[in-house]
Specification:
By secondary structure, the protein is of the alpha/beta class. The protein is 47% helix and 11% strand. It has an eight-stranded mixed sheet with strand order 3-2-1-4-5-6-7-8, sandwiched between helices. Helix 5 (103-116) packs parallel to helix 6.
Length: 337
């Protein structure tokens, strides 16, 4: 079955995820969708110093939005901010230095942000990583899971109250079409069993993001949630994490601007806000989040088990606030709704 999934996914990708795929899809785009000013609206973008995150930040800043860059490296963030301000002429670009793999720090940042800022209109979960060998963060969480899933979960969950009281609130998560080859594995969220394949671990995290988006859309009807696939884009992350794939695809890869297009559309356009919350998007259109006959659907019980595990780990982060941890998190009973 995994061979079937991988084959179908790659064949779809050659036609849809490449630069040619974008060119074909974009012929149906409505330019007026992005003829809009967002002066006075605030946007938080994780991983905003390079690639799709930076391209998204530039596009939003050009439309007048206030941009909050959440980046791991302060020096690189400052360089990126300089570029964003220079290209957009918008000075309302702010840097927040946070490592999304350090879950306690993510929670502390989100709590502080809620106290400092009166509103947040759009959260864009873009930061991600693909570590090729199993590594743990200082809290004992596998690093891919900590960054791609747990950090994103804690950031979003903590900021939901702020988003709820803001006008036209939206949450957009940058996932990957690679998640289509994965079924949610509720019995091994941190990839402890079997051979560790960084690419497949990343794809599993991206499936987790899709499931989370669908869950949030059901329990938070005031906020518009969406998750998207940027296509195969020529980003620093792809060239570093998947050098063979990057070399093989070459000029067929999308530009970062093409990869960011649907993120920008979901964040800015009025049309996007009128779509049903919780959907998976590709090139401004909702698309299926499962391949045909791939057996990747999860039961309601499996999804609830997954959510409960995340809530339990998140509660552990909160309960250990201010405590010096020398070992992995020991989660207490969850209290999130």
């Amino acid at each position: 079955m995994s061979l079937y999934r991988n084959t179908v996914w790659f064949l779809n990708g050659i036609h849809q995820y490449t630069r040619k795929g974008y060119a074909a899809a974009s012929s149906d785009f409505e330019p007026k969708d992005l003829e809009i000013s967002v002066v006075g609206r605030s946007f938080m973008i994780t991983g905003a110093n390079s690639g799709i995150g930076k391209a998204t930040a530039i596009a939003i800043a050009k439309k007048g939005g206030t941009v909050h860059m959440v980046c791991r490296n302060k020096e690189r963030a400052e360089e990126a901010r300089s570029d964003i301000v220079s290209e957009s002429g918008n000075m309302e670009v702010h840097i927040h230095t946070v490592d999304m793999s350090q879950t306690r720090k993510v929670w502390e940042f989100a709590e502080a942000f809620k106290k400092q800022y009166p509103s947040l209109n759009v959260l864009i979960n873009n930061a991600g990583c693909m570590v090729q060998k199993r590594e743990l963060n200082e809290e004992g969480l596998e690093k891919n899971f900590a960054t791609n899933t747990m950090g994103m979960f804690i950031l979003t969950q903590t900021l939901i109250p702020l988003l709820q009281k803001s006008r036209d609130p939206r949450v957009i998560t940058v996932s990957s079409g690679g998640m289509l080859v994965q079924k949610l594995r509720v019995d091994d969220l941190q990839s402890e069993k079997g051979y560790f394949d960084g690419v497949m671990v990343y794809a599993q995290n991206k499936r987790q993001q899709v499931v989370l988006t669908q869950h949030w859309a059901k329990v938070n009807p005031v906020i518009h949630f969406s998750v998207m696939h940027p296509g195969w884009a020529d980003t620093p992350a792809v060239s570093t994490s998947m050098p063979q794939f990057h070399h093989m695809m070459g000029e067929r890869l999308r530009t970062v601007q093409q990869g960011a297009d649907t993120v920008v559309w979901l964040a800015l356009s009025r049309v996007a806000a009128r779509t049903r919350s919780g959907q998976f998007f590709q090139d401004r259109e909702p698309v299926p989040d499962h391949l045909p006959l791939a057996w990747t659907h999860s039961s309601a019980e499996e999804i609830q088990t997954f959510i409960t595990q995340l809530e339990t780990l998140a509660q552990a982060v909160e309960s250990q606030h201010g405590v010096d941890l020398n070992g992995p998190l020991v989660p207490p009973r969850p209290h999130f709704v």
